[in-house]
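Per reviewer request, we include the raw input and output of the structure prediction for the construct analysed in the revised manuscript.
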Amino acid sequence: MSEGLVLPKFSVGVGDRFAHQAKAQLAACIKAGEAGVEVVPVWNKSNREHTIIGTDPNQTRKAADAAVKELGWDKPYFLDADHINFKTVDRFIEPCDFFTMDVADEIGKAAKPEDVDAFVARHPELVGTVTIPRIAEPFKTDVAFVKGVANKFLAAVQDAGKIYRYLVEKKGAGKFVPEISMDETDFPQTPVELLIILAAIADEQIPIQTIAPKFTGRFNKGVDYVGDVAQFTKEFEEDLAAIAFAVKRYGLPANLKLSVHSGSDKFSIYSAIYNAVKKFDAGVHLKTAGTTWLEELIGLAEAGGDGLAIAKEVYREAYAHSDELRGPYATVIDIDDAKLPKPEEVDGWTSKQFTDALRHDQSNPAYNPSFRQLLHVGFKIAAKMGDKYLKALEANEEIVAKNVTTNLFDRHISPVFLGK
């Protein structure tokens, strides 16, 4: 499959809710280069976030381009139309050059029986004993098993094929990086299931460069991984093996790599990712999304005065509209209401008390994951503040930027890509 635009080996998805931190985020990638590893930024902002904030993908493009120009970044960078489907893709076509095709709604929908039969007939190698190099035990399958997996995922892959061909028609082949998101399903895919999915993707002639499978455990927004790290490590390594095998067997792009969605702040699995990627000499895409917005709040709170007052106001309103804010993110947050401080208490907090509760430092006894998660989904409150919030960011640019860069480099890039 021809590649055209190529996503480098290591990339980090960076969300910038209010399009004010592109420079601070890019500074973290520059620090990575100085430390000896190339990590390229992929700015991502979903249709849901644009809709909530009232922004447009062209604003994200302008912010990214301006940061690249100002800091003299001469390596690749991308703009991700994050979690798009047929209904939402059009507004992203012109500004974006990376498309995360989210086909979660189609997973589990029965494909046409004749399509399933044709798939099984095309792939006799998937029936019987399936040996994937670097996975200890071969997999035993039969026609019923392959049909079952195809029935669960084929309609979703066909949907991705339609979106991909539409993008080719509108942008041209090789002019964008395609990713398929398979993470929003109930159970992790086994390596042989992933292999069957990749065979179907190759049949659809989608030259995907990243795939986001479902892993075991909870990937909640902005907080650490919850689950069995040993099991995650096994799944991650086996997925790397399945991808390497599928690339050779089905002619998928040589740079095809795993994408870890909701990857921000999953500190307990970062060393597993680093070690596995090194062991397999593989690439990885880590999506960090909304943590930048939390670093903005931390910076404002740290600044004191009006900045701290705005941070407290955001919390007060988030607390008051908690159910509404949580709704769209219900599957990826776990907030303990009993651990949420009352706004009246927070109103009396110092800068340090606010930042200690919000900053993701598990060694700090004041760190409060429920407080952090509520604020994570509370960006709509800041959006409603309009200029008041944006002017506060600009007035406190230095302290906010320092928090954004430090968070992205020290807590994410360094452990995942440098092993430190």
